[in-house]
Write a structure and sequence with these properties.
Elements: E1 22-27, H1 33-42, E2 46-51, E3 63-68, E4 94-97, H2 99-107, E5 111-126, E6 139-151, E7 157-161, E8 169-172, E9 177-180, H3 192-203, H4 212-227, E10 232-235, H5 240-253, E11 257-263, H6 271-282, E12 287-291, H7 293-300, H8 306-328, E13 332-334, H9 339-344, E14 370-372, H10 380-389, H11 394-397, H12 417-436, E15 445-449, E16 454-459, E17 462-475, E18 483-484, H13 489-502, E19 506-511
Parallel strand pairs: 1-2, 1-3, 3-4, 4-9, 10-11, 10-13, 11-12, 13-14, 17-19
Antiparallel strand pairs: 5-6, 5-7, 7-8, 8-9, 15-17, 16-17, 17-18
Helix pairs in contact: 4-5, 4-10, 5-10, 7-8, 12-13
The chain binds xanthosine-5'-monophosphate (XMP).
Length: about 525
């Protein structure tokens, strides 16, 4: 659920976990930066990303290596993000990637300028060097650059080239500074993970062994430190991110955590009861159920415009949540913000892709002293792995995403209880059949939509003029893009038969076969 306007990370604010060894990625704004941290964690070493100009002391604990990312700027342009040479001489090895390599060249006196632009796959020929240990030659790498290093700085030697890029990698062994023009984090760089592994183990001397399970203990300590002797309140939607955050917080401070579940009346069939039962009984959380369905439906009466509906739902949600939170007297607010929420919102030096409601910091008039966001450095699949590691049942960990505005954006046009109830029944049939077919983990999201169109049909020899229901089932990795799921025809027919037979006032079912883009996943 989106806690619009309530919550988030302050730009540039970084909370570090206590780790014995870690890599830090300095962010210069490249779109794939998050993948670097991800790959390194997958290789068994803890890694975090920070703005390129973050104070060294804020991240130096346990530091064994620094990575400088790519970015959209040219080092020669005015205002380009820069670092002093001293920032790269901290006694730990440094690896610059793309812009990061060009920055190193420029800082130490090499020349950077327009070379031959290279986008996409290139063949790299590398020398025998620890950074390229185990590499086949040539090796496919992924390039994306206009500028290139044109001459080496003093003390550096060339390590690799492609046909368009004579200086595709370099090293200064004495100062332990390295650079690669290509993107090892991209999956199209066939041996990219090997290069990162060579850097972190061969050059930085990492011991490794970091696992997702380790993170749970570190996060619990961190939450305890943040909340101190105080109390914490959390908005719980039933989704995986807020649940994992709440279970971690519960392990940290026990009943000093109060969860608030705002039921806006736009939930799926039996969802409010299931959420309450599951969180209260199975997970043992202290949870307050606020039935605000009348309030929401009242505020939405007569409203058909999708954006207006979203705004009203967001506004009412914040009001109800604040009213309830105030009753608890809690000083801190727990958020299930995850890393893509932050990066897509253009925090740091990345371009804004899409603003997420839950990013941007506490409003100035907030009653809360502090935000607690234990998951803000993780990706969705890492949150799921963490959820499983701390014993949250798979049924919840693998729940499909459900939007904050709920069925309010799946009943097209004005909402009524009758329409919502009809949709709830159709949606329950769809979910049941997809689970029975064993496709509930394979398909990213699957739901029914009530488009508000009536068509003519025939039932029991009589004419009907009732609703059409649309099925939406989509595969995706991150919800940024998606393809319609190719559900078996026999399954679609079974779902259609059940909906038209079991749900009063439905005579026709259609299947949405559009990709995102140009469609979006939700219809509104
Ligand atoms: P779209 O429709 O933009 O959806 O392709 C992308 C993903 O985001 C979910 N979604 C939302 N989630 N609050 C949420 O918490 C919202 O307002 C919201 N709108 C869309 C959608 O279900 C899909 O997973």
């Amino acid at each position: 659920m989106h806690n619009a306007g309530l919550c988030g990370i302050a730009i540039g604010e970084v909370i570090f976990l206590n780790t014995n060894e870690k890599l830090v990625v300095l962010d210069f704004g490249g779109q794939f930066n998050q993948l670097i941290t991800r790959r390194i964690r997958d290789l068994g070493v803890y890694c975090e990303i920070v703005p390129y100009d973050a104070a060294f002391e804020s991240y130096s604990d346990g530091l064994i290596g620094l990575i400088l990312t790519g970015g959209p700027a040219s080092v020669n342009q005015d205002g380009a993000p820069k670092l002093e040479a001293g920032s790269l001489l901290r006694g730990v090895p440094v690896l610059g990637i793309c812009y990061g390599m060009q920055l190193i060249a420029s800082v130490f006196g090499g020349a950077v300028g327009k070379g031959e632009a290279e986008f996409g796959k290139a063949e790299l020929t590398a020398q025998n060097h620890p950074l390229f240990k185990g590499f086949s030659s040539p090796s496919d790498v992924w390039m994306s650059h206009n500028d290139g290093v044109l001459s080496l700085p003093e003390g550096f030697s060339a390590l690799a080239s492609t046909s368009a890029c004579p200086l595709a990698a370099f090293a200064d062994e004495a100062r332990r500074i390295y650079g690669v023009q290509f993107h090892p984090e991209a999956s199209h760089s066939a041996q990219g993970s090997l290069l990162l592994s060579n850097f972190i183990y061969g050059i930085c001397g990492a011991k490794g062994g970091w696992k997702m399970e380790n993170l749970a203990g570190q996060m619990i300590d961190e939450i305890r430190a943040q909340v101190g002797g105080g109390t914490l309140v959390a908005g719980l939607s039933g989704g995986v991110d807020s649940s994992v955050a709440a279970v971690l917080a519960h392990k940290a401070i026990g009943d000093r955590l109060t969860c608030i579940f705002v039921d806006h009346g736009l939930m799926r069939l039996n969802e409010p009861q299931e959420v309450m039962e599951f969180y209260g009984n199975t997970l043992g959380l202290k949870i307050i159920h606020v039935d605000a369905s009348e309030r929401f439906l009242g505020a939405l009466k007569g409203v058909a415009d999708p954006e207006q509906k979203r705004k009203i739902i967001g506004r009412e949600f914040v009001r109800v949540f604040e009213e309830e939170a105030a009753k608890t007297g809690a000083e801190c607010l727990l958020q299930g913000t995850i890393y893509p929420d932050i990066i897509e919102s253009g925090v740091g030096n990345a371009a804004v892709i899409k603003s997420h409601h839950n990013v941007g910091g506490l409003p100035e008039d907030s009653k809360f002293r502090e935000l607690v966001e234990p998951l803000k450095m993780l990706f969705k699949d890492e949150v799921r792995a963490l959820g499983e590691a701390i014993g949250i049942p798979s049924k919840l960990v693998w729940r499909q995403p459900f939007p904050g505005p709920g069925l309010g954006i799946r009943v097209i046009g004005e909402l009524t209880i009758e329409k919502l109830d009809k949709l709830r029944l159709c949606d329950a049939i769809l979910r049941e059949e997809i689970a029975l077919a064993g496709l509930d983990r394979e398909v990213w999201q699957y739901f029914a939509v009530l488009p508000g169109i009536r068509t003519v049909g025939v039932k029991g020899d009589a004419r009907t003029y009732v609703d059409v229901v649309a099925i939406r089932a989509i595969t995706s990795v991150d919800a940024m893009s998606g393809e319609p799921a190719e559900l078996p025809y026999s399954l679609l027919k079974k779902i259609s038969n059940r909906m038209t037979n079991e749900v009063e006032g439905v005579s026709r079912v259609v299947y949405d076969i559009s990709s995102k883009p140009p469609a979006t996943i939700e219809w509104e």
